[in-house]
Write a structure and sequence with these properties.
Alpha-Beta Plaits, alpha+beta, 2 domains, two-stranded parallel sheet, four-stranded antiparallel β-sheet, single chain
């Protein structure tokens, strides 16, 4: 199945500097928001208490927040999720009380509002565990990027494609971080998992394009690199858009129907899929071209063979 009814012939490389500018602006906005506002880190990283509560009828979020504050819980964060009867409660870490004591206090505060209220789930994460998880997430991202650089460099025999792939891979998670910083959606381990999935998904598209670039260079080593890169991207464009559209349909369904638990995960995937589609088309190959990519880079023996035939 093809997305386009005929072979496209868009001049992607001719307009690459326009898209460089767009990417630069988006990344600057994302990084500025990240360093200025930061992320709304969930208890996975900060430590604290996360509770899911079910009411017999519609829950009064403001009343729950006021009652928790009156009970002694500091800065409780209360919001609906799933349905009007279900709420999520986030509390800062409290090392002085055990999980059982916190649950008992929470039960008392909620039943003062509605005797039928029930704490469905209660998770307590200590600050030390939160710090360890945060560092583990950072190391996971760093090792992923290093592995990608080595893999591309070994597979395609050139750092130029590897450098383009790394910049494209960095482009996607930075935009995801910017989105979460601007919207202040909770940033938890599921979002980190989504970012790693986005990196792998984007890299897969980039490798497909790079494979086609290698095939085009092998068939016509004297052609202009920009023309061959345009041909390669156009030949894979239908597949790229088709797979991203189908995946996006599932992710959008998760975003709107998956409830609060999957909201951050699905939002990160959706932003990453959009950014990954764009970066695999406009960033990775274009960066390699501006680094001076030629057939000799992908096929190191080409240059030697030409020299051997010189008189």
């Amino acid at each position: 199945m093809e997305f386009f009814s005929h072979q496209t012939n868009y001049p992607f490389m001719a307009t690459r500097r326009v898209w460089y500018t767009l990417s630069a602006v988006l990344m600057i906005v994302a990084l500025a928001s990240f360093f200025w506002h930061g992320l709304n880190l969930a208890i996975d990283f900060t430590g604290g208490v996360n509770a899911e509560v079910s009411f017999p009828g519609a829950a009064n979020v403001e009343a729950v927040r006021a009652q928790l504050a009156a009970t002694g819980f500091h800065e409780p964060q209360v919001q609906n999720f799933g349905s009007s009867r279900d709420i999520s409660i986030r509390l800062p870490p409290d090392p002085k009380h055990s999980a059982g004591e916190i649950r008992q206090q929470l039960d008392g505060a909620l039943k003062a509002i509605d005797p039928g209220a029930q704490v469905v789930q209660l998770d307590v994460v200590g600050p030390q565990v939160g710090n360890e998880l945060r560092m583990s997430a950072v190391w996971a991202l760093l090792f992923t990027l290093l592995g990608i650089f080595i893999y591309i460099a070994l597979r395609f025999h050139t750092w130029k494609l590897s450098f383009g792939a790394i910049l494209a891979v960095l482009h996607d998670p930075i935009l995801v971080l910017g989105f979460f910083s601007i919207t202040q959606l909770p940033f938890d381990l599921s979002v980190v998992a989504a970012m790693l999935a986005v990196i792998g998904y984007s890299l897969n598209d980039t490798v497909v394009v790079f494979d086609r670039i290698r095939e085009r260079f092998e068939g016509n080593r004297r052609a202009a690199p920009a023309a061959l890169l345009d041909q390669s991207i156009n030949q894979t464009l239908s597949r790229t858009i088709m797979t991203k559209v189908v995946t996006s349909i599932v992710v959008v369904a998760l975003l709107f129907l998956g409830g609060l638990a999957l909201k951050g995960f699905s939002a990160a995937l959706l932003i990453g899929i959009i950014a990954g589609t764009y970066s695999s088309i406009y960033i990775s190959s274009a960066i390699a071209l501006d680094c001076g990519l030629t057939a000799e880079d992908i096929f190191p023996t080409v240059k030697k063979a030409v020299l051997d035939h010189l008189p």
